[in-house]
Write a structure and sequence with these properties.
Number of helices: 5
Strand order of the largest sheet: 1-2
Largest sheet: 2 strands, antiparallel
Distance between the termini: 56 Å
Radius of gyration: 22 Å
Number of strands: 2
Length: 131
């Protein structure tokens, strides 16, 4: 896709976001680059824009706030020299993800324990509530 330009509709198809959402991302400062316009004033995206948008989708899915995505995008737009700040944003988010995973694993352990309890109860034709 290098050198290729894409319309907002094509980017919507590739990312799974709506055209409205893509416009919102741009308006909210969530994109790392400036979206160019063609002679008719229509948005023109590059492969790097699509890659950034796909990253943003994963950031959001992993619980990163829009404010932190905006901060990261702002730092990337500024260019070299702020890599330590970018790293800090990413490290903080990594810690957040790790905490979420630990909490989910704890929840999974509880649910699996209850499943085992009910399976034993049903297999033994037990009486009473297995909770």
């Amino acid at each position: 896709m290098s050198g290729q330009v894409l319309s907002i509709g094509e980017v919507a198809k590739r990312t799974g976001l709506s055209v409205h959402a893509l416009r919102l991302y741009e308006r909210e400062g969530l994109l790392a680059g400036t979206i160019s316009r063609d002679r008719s004033g229509r948005r023109v995206y590059r492969s790097s824009d699509v890659e950034w948008i796909l990253n943003c989708i994963k950031f959001r899915a992993s619980g990163m706030s829009l404010a932190n995505i905006r901060r990261l995008a702002e730092l990337v737009r500024r260019g070299e020299g702020n890599e330590a700040e970018r790293l800090e944003v990413l490290r903080e988010h990594s810690s957040h993800i790790s905490a979420e995973i630990a909490q989910l694993l704890d929840c999974l352990e509880l649910v699996n324990g209850k499943i085992a309890s009910y399976e034993r109860h049903l297999a033994e034709l037990g009486t009473g509530d297995p909770w």
